[in-house]
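@channel sequence for tomorrow's demo:
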Amino acid sequence: MGLTKSIEFSYFWTSIFIVVLLISSYALFSQPSGGSLINLPDKAMHFFLFLTLSFLLKKSNNYLKTSLFFIIFYAVLSEIIQWFLPYREGDFIDLFFNLLGILVIFWKKIFFFSRA
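structure tokens (generated this afternoon):
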């Protein structure tokens, strides 16, 4: 029995995750207004967005299976919603880069099924 208690939930990281999730949802679902402030290709932006979201979600709690399910569900749902928006396009390649960003953070859990 150790002297430290495992923290299962962090309010700090969760609040940052929620803010980034809301900002990214706005960016994913709002009507594009021309040029982007960030000069990155679309696929790289999808990759880095879901890399960041996955990192923050993993830091916010110790529920890795639930977090992994949630972030994959959000990645798929975001592309489905974009498919039906008249000013956006849902794309399987975007979904691939969403999942690739998630995979980078959760690779150990996905491939080795460890409890880390």
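heads up for whoever presents: The mean pLDDT is 86.
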